[in-house]
Amino acid sequence: MATSILITGASGFIGSFIVQEALKRKFSVWAGMRSGSSKKYLRERKIHFLELDFAHPNELRAQLSGYKGTYNKFDYIIHCAGITKAKNKKSFDRVNYLQTKYFIDTLIDLNMVPKQFIYISSLSVFGPVHEKDYAMIKETDMPAPNTNYGMSKLKAELYIQGLPGFPYVIYRPTGVYGPRDTDYYLLARSIKKHIDFSAGFKRQDLTFIYVKDMVNAIFLGLDKNITRRTYFLSDGNTYQSRTFSNLIRKELGNPFVFHIKCPLFILKTISLLAQFVSNRLGMTSTLNGDKYKIMKQRNWRCDISPATEELGFTPKYSLEEGVKETIAWYKSEGWL
Questions:
Q1: Which of 38, 165, 286, 329 is the most exposed place for a label (fewest CB within 10 A)?
Q2: How many domains, the chain?
Q3: How does pLDDT run across 246-271, given as a tens digit for each residue?
Q4: 23 is a domain residue
Q5: Cα–Cα distance, 205 to 215 (Å, whole number)
């Protein structure tokens, strides 16, 4: 019988790439999804679908019990479900922390703990550390998240790490980009419209990881049966703010652009205003208080040497190669 793997958040940007890699590796792949989630990137016939209602523990228990009654338990679980945008702190906590807790508690209660529970976290759990000396963020540093998103992810991490013997592996990627991503797409669309926007005037060290490299790291950890470890993930390089946009420009045929550097105090005002308006309209805004703090942060350097040494992780994509493939996909899909 094929090794089973459950991937939550399977319909999303990162989750859908994890599903594809698991299929390539001949796993019995279960895509965990909310009712009504899109299957646009999940067309392969070998994918099994499992509706999971993380918001309601009793429903979730019934859904997982139903699976166990027929198939026993999953060999591996990759918990990718979560949100990066929300109206307020309570929403972030409910989805990224509480629903993760419900999920794990239910797995434990049903005796369905897998060989490895992989949690997709974020470099944002550390917040603006080493902002003065631009030193690399390391796992020995004290997390100090300054965003609601980062705090909710850290709460989930701490809960997972506090469970005795629980076989977790936590990945903290920096900015993940690639085909299907909508966040960096907004930058590409802006550049096509001749505007390159950046925040603040002080030096900003940025890091990135191409989605396929991130997925590769996850499966390296799975292959090596790693447990109870956390890893930062990036492509191992540091970039200045204009590097990414210049590569996008190149792939778009080098259109003329206006380089606009927005002072942070103006950006903060605009962000908070956008958040206020979107909240009044019952929506979530791409530009908000959390996003402002992320753009304000000057140092995103992180130490990937543990992943390199323990997992054998070597990024295959340079930033130039990743951007080239991403922009080509945006064009082929009619996004640009």
A1: 165
A2: 1
A3: 999 999 999 999 999 999 999 999 89
A4: yes
A5: 24
